[in-house]
Amino acid sequence: MPSFMELHMSPATNSIFIISSAGGNNTALEILESSRDREYYERRGSELMNIGRPYDVEQSGFIILQDSRMEMAGGEFCGNASRAGALVLSHALSLPQFRFSVSGTQHFVKACIADKHLNGAYVQCDFLKLPSNVQHITLSTGVPAFLVDLGGIVHVLIEAPFPDDEASYTRQHREVMDELGLQDRDAVGVNWIQRHGNKLMLHPVVWVRAIDTFFYETSCGSGSIAASFATGSEFIQQPSGKTIRVTHDRDITSLSSEMEIVHVIEPS
Which tens digit of pLDDT belongs to each residue from 179-207? Predict the structure, then answer.
C-alpha cells in the first residue's frame, strides 16, 4: 500500500479508503464525484461492509468530492467517520484545515489535520452546536443510566462492568432499545462506562437501522462525545486500548485522536 504522502493528490473516484480511528472502528469510505440518493447509499453501503470484511470494517460511508461532504451509509452521525472523511478530503483539497459537511448534523464541521506521518495523521474535528440533551434515567432493571441524544445518533450510557460475552451485550442492547422506544432512530448506541482516574473506559455497542449493522465497536467517536457530555470526562479510552480526546468550548465540541489509512482499494 502506498504511504499517506504517496497517495494521489486527488483520490480517484470509486476508490475505497479503509481508515481506523484511535486504533479501531475501521471505516470504509468510497469516493464519489457527486451525491446520490438515499437508496443508493444504503445499498452500496451494505456492499462496502462486505468488501471491507477482510479489513475488519465496522461501518461505511461516502466522500462526495463535489460537495466536500461525508455521508454515512445509514445517514447517521458518526464522529470517527467524520474524521476519517476529513483525512481523505485534506488530501483531495491539499489543505490542513477546512470546513466540510457530514450526515446527521446540520452545521459545517471544521477539520484540522496535523502531524502527517506514513499512512496517518492526528485529526481533530470541531462540531458546532451538537445537540447535548443529557437525561438521567433509571432502567427497568433498576440500573441508573444516561440518555444522550446527539440528533443523528442516540446513546445510552450505563456505568457498570461490560458484559463478558456477545450474547449478553446483544440481548441487553436490544432490551434497552425496546424499553426506551428507540427502534426508529437512525442509530442507537448502548455503552458501558467505567471510570479509571482521569480517564473513562468506554465499551460501545452500536446498531445502525438503515443497513442493519450491529457491532461492539473497537472505538466510537459519537459514544465518546456522549460520554463526555454525561460525565465531563476529557480522555475516553477505547476498547482498542487507545484514547480519544473530547473537549467543549461554548458551542463547539472537539473530537481528536490518531487516524490511520489501513488500506486503499483502487477502482478496477
Answer: 999 999 999 999 999 998 778 999 999 99
CA distance 152 to 222: 10
Contact (Cβ atoms closer than 8 angstroms) between residue 184 and residue 135 = no
The answer to whether the CB of 29 falls within 8 A of the CB of 16 is: yes
Distance from C-alpha of 209 to C-alpha of 227, rounded to nearest angstrom: 22
- CA-wise closest residue to 162 among 202, 192, 204, 205: 192
What the block records as the C-alpha cell of 104 is 446527521
pTM of the model: 0.94
What architecture is the 133-253 domain classified under in CATH? Roll (3.10)
**Superfamily (CATH H level) for 4-127+254-265:** Diaminopimelate Epimerase; Chain A, domain 1 (3.10.310.10)
